[in-house]
Amino acid sequence: MASENSPQAACTEWWRVDTATLHARKQEIEVLKRRLDAEQYAIFAELNTRGIRGCYGHSTLMGLILQDFHVSEKEASARADRALALHPGVALGGDVVPPLAPVTADAAAEGAIGGGQIDAIIGALAQVPSFVPEEDVQAGEKILVDLARRAGPKEITRAGRRMLDTMDPDGKEPRNEDPKDARPELRFIKHRDGTLGFAGTLDLEIYARLKSDLDPLAKPHKAIDGVRDSRSQGERYGDAFSDYVRMKTASPDIPSQAGESTQILVTMAYDDLMNEVGDGLLDLVGPISATDVRILACDARIRPIVLSGAGQPLDVGRSSRSTTTPQKHALKIRDGGCAFPGCDMPVQRCTAHHIVFWRHRGETKIDNLVLLCTKHHRLIHKSEWKVQLAQDGLPEFIAPAYLDPTGTPRRNTMHLRV
Description:
two-stranded antiparallel sheet
């Protein structure tokens, strides 16, 4: 039987501990794990400089790690790369080779950053051209490490690309290819079960352009609170195409309808919309839920139409836009894209959401608006996630209590500029 103070007893009694303590303890353990990993990287580097790995019959540090720990080749390679990048090495002639990422090594030793963040930093530093001055490289590394203290690998990778663009603005030469001509066609389809779709054939150029536009939009969403993107590839491309259509139809270059940009008409009783009951009627489609109507109303032209008892239009009022063009420009500058934590959706895929809902008489002004992509726009409307503006005027989000009982506000660092 396990004693009261044994690890087994401690593990079996976590159910007795309050949620706040569990949350704090898991953070402490993560810091300890990162410090131990950093210590092991330093040991690997020292073994490498002494040539001890050769005694085991391996020509690489990766081979030594594979034999000692029985990890995957990918994991062994990552550990070896971190050890060699964070600490000094020895050249063939015996000269000391300075570390690629000394500032990163210090942050790792603190337990402030982990493996994925280290990989993103050293991946960016490894691509810095040799003509860049050393002081610029050091300054760039410090910026990436400071970001890593509050952001994940994807954010760091994006920041690293921006850093490289600054250091080497010419970049690689573009590739130009001449596409072939073909005859495209498109057919809209209404299936027997009521779902809608289309089918068609594209020429090589349009296929390449469309796929090139959709590929970045169809990437899996970043995991948030351990929940990964569960959509199939087809579903991801379906969502990407939906966002693509929204962006393109909002463009001023699209041919207008009666002097105005592309429109869709939704009809719904005002009282039903405000009370969240009933369905709306979407032009060319049919009934849609009140929730979908409210999401459309967040950033749309609202045109009041008075109907008679028989449904005949008696009076059509002037339309008003929920957000003005100057307001949208201000949101683009402030939010840089979807403001939800960890989301990298660009401005073009976002719409303005009223923090105090429009149906609750929320005002259409900058301090009541936030940019959200389609996925997170729906999440805010349909879940317990909350959004607010902090004292510095930037949006922050509070997770439901079951995800984070501390209620700590979260921000998106994906759109920060280096």
